[in-house]
Amino acid sequence: MMNYGIDDEFLLTGDTLSVESVGRTELQFGEAEAAHGAALLNDTLHEKILDLPDHTTVLPGHVSVSSDGRYEHGVAGQPDYGPIGILSEKTSTCCDSIERRSSIGAPSTSPRSRRTTRTLSR
Fold first, then answer.
1. How far apart are CA 110 and CA 47, in angstroms?
2. In principle, which of 5, 12, 34, 55 could form an S-S bond with 26, CB 3.0–4.6 Å?
3. Are 62 and 111 in contact (CB under 8 A)?
4. Rounded to whole angstroms, how far apart are CA atoms 102 and 56?
């Protein structure tokens, strides 16, 4: 999962983060390597993204879709200052949460991309 930083002001996260959640590691690594992908994602989130300066604006690639196909999103164009819940959990719990969410499968409807702004709080 690739992220692009722009002058310590912006971080484009692509599929690493969506507005309300984190990336699905089994899509990149496959079901057999999802645990490895979850560990890499956890390390990236804790050692890279959360270490950015507080003023950094994080720009996710898309909105989340729940297991029943509903969109989960903030208000387009408005900063969302809430933390992403599983990031506050210990590493093993965070990885388990990522893996468990990844095994839900694809939603029944295709998500439409929206651009929103998300600033992570520590």
1. 32
2. 34
3. yes
4. 28
pTM as predicted: 0.50
How many Cβ atoms are within 10 Å of 8's Cβ, its own excluded? 10
**List of residues 6+ apart from 51 with CB closer than 8 A:** none
E strands, 2-66, where? 4-6, 10-14, 57-60, 64-65
Q: How far apart are CA 30 and CA 37, in angstroms?
A: 9
Q: CB under 8 Å to 8, separation ≥6 — which residues?
A: 52, 53, 56
For the stretch 41-99, pLDDT in tens is: 888 888 888 788 878 888 877 766 667 777 665 565 565 554 455 455 555 565 666 56
Phi and psi for 117 in degrees, rounded to 5?
A: -110, 135
